[in-house]
Design brief:
57% of the residues lie in helices and 12% in strands. It is an alpha/beta fold. It has a five-stranded parallel sheet with strand order 2-3-1-4-5, with helices on both faces. It binds shikimate-3-phosphate. It is found in: Cytoplasm.
């Protein structure tokens, strides 16, 4: 199997759908955010508070570079990973799936899964802005995109598997 990378905004289901896709493919799953937490030895929210977003982005670029070089299977990236030019260049040679979500559903999912430092204040307005600003970047790297709004995880994993 080769590498399949999942990108998309916070709340688009990258980790959940990525895991289900890996299972459907019988391939290993890896999450770049989890790699960053392991390297830093603390949660992402603490990295933002203690060391700042710039430091987090540097750790993220390195975690993605390492994962793309090492991993064979499904790899989920954090929502902001595509902001880095170097990361977008790396992704040019891999299969990339862009998961979309509408603002209302991203807000709902963020309510359930707290702990995103960028969304601690004003999540709705911030998500609206992030979705809009990053859409061209997700599209630049993606081979195809799927709207996850109102969809169940198993159905999404199956649709992606069929498109690979
Ligand atoms: C971020 C998204 C998060 C995480 C960090 C920054 C972003 O990942 O990497 O909090 O800039 O959108 P998820 O997209 O998995 O929530």
């Amino acid at each position: 199997m080769s590498l399949v990378v999942i990108v998309g905004p916070p709340g688009s289901g990258k980790t959940t759908v990525g895991r289900a896709l890996a299972e459907a493919l019988g391939a290993p799953f890896r999450d770049a955010d989890a790699d960053i937490v392991a390297v830093a030895g603390k949660p992402i929210a603490d990295i933002f508070v203690d060391d700042g977003e710039e430091h987090f982005r540097a750790l993220e670029r390195e975690a993605v570079r390492r994962a793309v070089a090492e991993h064979d299977g499904v790899l989920a990236l954090g929502g902001g990973a595509v902001l880095a030019d170097s990361t977008r260049k790396l992704l040019a040679d891999t299969t990339v799936v862009h998961l979309r979500v509408d603002v209302a559903e991203a807000v709902r999912r963020n309510e359930i899964d707290k702990g995103r430092p960028l969304l601690a204040v004003n999540p709705r307005a911030t998500l609206r802005r992030l979705l809009e600003e990053r859409l061209p970047l997700y599209r630049e790297v993606a081979d195809f995109e799927i709207d996850t709004t109102g969809r169940d995880v198993a159905g999404l994993a199956e649709e992606i598997r069929a498109k690979l």
